[in-house]
Design brief:
The complex is a heterodimer. By secondary structure, chain A is of the alpha/beta class. Chain A is built from 10 helices and 12 strands. The chains are: A alpha/beta, B mainly alpha.
Chain lengths: 279, 260
């Protein structure tokens, strides 16, 4: 089967990809790195002729009670228009408050109040872009006592009410489930499969927190065994989707990312018949 | 008592920037890992990721002072100024002025100027290259109109004027540079920072050229800018300087430039 796994495009690999044009399912960029008229953006626009693209935003702050920053939204919309990517996504989180940006995917309580806010913000985003976007489950290090919905319930309701897609980050499920004492397979089982548009795969670190291990979503290593097993379970349950290898810290040689993508393709091929039936 | 989302986000914003909020802690599930410890993960990530973003924008400052001292500078700066929007390459415009005012950094009097240079290189890297003025563009302009032209710099370009040899300090701080010592008494430096192809670059100007370029950047005509050049450096020669800067593609070929 043809490659469906893609890789996150990092500045470090840009020249090599432009020169060698390696085969990969698609390239995903972080929107916020390509909003200026830099040579890197010109290089991306040239690559667009040879590759399928995904634009992954990290700063739209879809969970902000204040609503979206219209200036930033317009810049992201401009990039989407220039690049015409196949996929656009951001996270179920917030990162802006009172005009200050915290550069982190901060957590949300899962309540009806917050659902209204996120549905409204995702609706505004889809209206500004004139297309569907996908929302990614974040990695969580805490839970709010007043949450009334589970994360999968919240995502399912968000997809139903806003019409958005869901980007399932498999490693984030592993991280969140470990940190919040949840069952990752239970987490996975409660989603509307038809809304899932993409999978993300990445590595995580294990840190000490109050003398206990806590998993940190640092995207700084190969995909771990728990994430591979959960990925296999996800594609058997929901079917094959475009799948991304993400790597953001201690970025290795491009070949390491391509090897991880090939591994995802082998997992997909092995799960083939089940995955095809699920799709 | 759970906080409504606007209040919760205000409390969280305060907490991740170092002000403990008991009302927020009370909203969070703690177990064998306490709510405080869980919140600290976010606080830690915010400060480290923004410090790393500043290090990426000010690599020469970090090379000069080392990672530890740079982090201290970055945290001090972040306590005053957080990004106003999510494009991290646009965060840090106020950092050079912060470095200039920072007490511990005063032992390195050139450090703020290096920060200005790093910032100028960052700005110009994210600006469009644009078409540059060439001699041919001026061929059709009547000779008597030439002195009246105002010539603008390329978008994002800037002039950095320092009492220190910051070009040599910058060069010696690049990865792989030989460990030559730089004589801080070598005198002032004026640099024109601009996009060149796929890179951000700087041109070293002499005193006359710097005064000339500064005057052009302020919108003065060629004739007036040339006078500024001569008063800064009596040996300044307009045709020599202008021809050199044209060759270095130092001016924008904007319609405005050609219409005068």
């Amino acid at each position: 089967m043809s490659a469906v796994a893609g890789i996150g495009l990092r500045a470090l690999h840009l020249a090599e990809i432009a020169r060698d044009q390696p085969a990969t399912g698609f390239l995903e960029i972080h929107a916020e790195n390509y909003l200026g008229a830099s040579p890197a953006r010109a290089a991306i626009e040239r690559l667009r002729e040879s590759y399928t693209f995904s634009i992954h935003a990290v700063g739209l702050s879809l969970g902000s009670a204040d609503g979206l920053d219209e200036h930033h939204l317009a810049r992201v919309a401009g990039l989407v228009k220039r690049l015409e990517p196949d996929y656009v996504s951001d996270h179920l989180s917030w990162s802006v408050h009172g005009g200050r940006y915290f550069n982190d995917l901060l957590p949300l309580p899962y309540t009806e109040e917050v659902l209204d806010v996120v549905v409204r913000n995702v609706g505004r985003l889809q209206e500004a872009l004139g297309r569907q976007v996908s929302i990614e489950n974040p990695s969580c290090y805490l839970a709010f006592a007043h949450s009334t919905l589970t994360e999968p319930e919240f995502l399912a309701e968000l997809a139903r009410r806003s019409g958005c897609g869901l980007l399932l980050d498999i490693n984030n499920i592993v991280v969140t489930a470990h940190n919040l004492r949840l069952d990752p397979n239970g987490w996975l089982s409660g989603l509307p499969g038809e809304a899932i548009t993409e999978y993300h795969l990445a590595g995580h670190a294990v840190n000490d927190c109050d003398g206990e291990p806590i998993l940190i979503d640092d995207h700084g290593s190969c995909v771990g065994p728990e994430a591979w097993a959960l990925f296999d379970a996800a594609i058997r349950r929901y079917g094959v989707r475009p799948t991304l290898i993400e790597w953001d810290t201690d970025i290795p040689a491009l070949s390491v990312l391509l090897d991880e993508a090939a591994k995802a393709d082998r997992t997909i091929a092995t799960a083939g018949p089940d995955a095809a039936r699920a799709a | 008592m759970p906080l409504a989302l606007p209040d919760l986000q205000a409390a969280f914003a305060a907490h991740v920037t170092g002000r403990d909020r008991a009302d927020l802690v009370a909203c969070i599930v703690g177990d064998t890992i306490s709510a405080d410890a869980r919140l600290r993960i976010y606080r830690h990530h915010v400060s480290h990721s923004l410090s790393a973003a500043l290090a990426a924008t000010f690599p020469t400052v970090q090379a000069l002072v080392g990672e530890g001292f740079f982090r201290t500078l970055a945290w001090g700066f972040m306590a005053q100024t957080l990004p106003g929007q999510p494009v991290l390459a646009e965060y840090g415009a106020e950092f050079p002025a912060f470095v200039a005012a920072d007490e511990p950094a005063r032992d390195l009097p050139y450090l703020a100027d290096i920060a200005w240079l790093d910032w100028a290189l960052n700005v110009v890297f994210h600006s469009p290259e644009g078409r540059r003025l060439a001699a041919a563009d001026l061929a059709g302009i009547a000779a008597e109109r030439l002195p009246l032209l105002s010539i603008s710099l390329p978008e994002g370009a800037s002039l950095i004027r320092s009492r220190y040899p910051i070009d040599r300090i910058w060069n010696a701080s690049q990865p792989g540079a030989s460990a030559d010592t730089v004589d801080l008494g070598a005198g002032r430096t004026d640099l024109l920072v601009l996009r060149r192809g796929d890179d951000a670059a700087f041109i070293v100007l002499d005193a006359g050229e710097a005064a000339f370029v500064a005057a052009l950047a302020e919108g003065m005509s060629l004739e007036t800018a040339a006078e500024k050049g001569m008063s800064a450096e009596p040996a300044f020669d307009l045709s020599t300087a202008f021809a050199r800067l044209l060759t270095l593609k130092a001016f924008a070929a904007s319609q405005h430039n050609l219409e005068g």
